[in-house]
């Protein structure tokens, strides 16, 4: 055991070994910080509002919403005509790469839904989830409520209150 400790002591006296161990410590600290940051973002995203919205239940109009997290702030305006998303204007964005949200908006308009495919399952895209929540919340404000169906997403009173507060008819 004494020989082993002597070899360790000699190794630790070497400058290159100290630099190597220092670099390993820095890398481990970076990895730990990134994991903590990812967990925090996941917790935030899981608390965002997501509603069940069928585009066929959204009446014509323009609806605004904003969604904020510690890493992305986005405000958008969604225009719906004949149960189709015709336009998504990004009113404010902080934290997204330039053009990133516009690309998501184009995908939503093309697919006529507030869902966006994620592609690689190993690549969690928190910005995409924040943007989906924003657009989803805007569309939710325009949900039609029909007294004849039992499949109402929200009550008639709540829908009317939301529509009066947020609809800006063209």
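-> sequence recovered:
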């Amino acid at each position: 055991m004494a020989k082993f400790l002597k070899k360790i002591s000699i190794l630790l006296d070497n400058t290159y070994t100290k630099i190597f161990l220092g670099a390993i410590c820095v890398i481990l600290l970076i990895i730990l910080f990134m994991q903590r940051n990812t967990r925090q973002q996941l917790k935030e995203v899981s608390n965002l509002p997501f509603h069940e919205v069928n585009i066929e239940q959204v009446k014509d109009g323009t609806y605004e919403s904003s969604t904020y997290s510690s890493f992305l702030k986005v405000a958008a305006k969604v225009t719906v005509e004949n149960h189709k998303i015709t336009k998504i204007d990004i009113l404010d964005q902080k934290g997204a790469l330039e053009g990133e949200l516009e690309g998501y908006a184009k995908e939503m308009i093309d697919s006529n839904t507030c869902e966006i495919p994620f592609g690689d399952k190993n690549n969690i895209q928190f910005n995409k989830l924040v943007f989906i929540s924003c657009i989803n919340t805007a569309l939710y404000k325009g949900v039609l409520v029909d007294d004849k169906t039992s499949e109402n997403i929200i009550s008639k009173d709540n829908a009317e209150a939301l529509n009066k507060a947020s609809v800006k008819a063209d």
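Residues 15-46 form the longest helix (32 residues).
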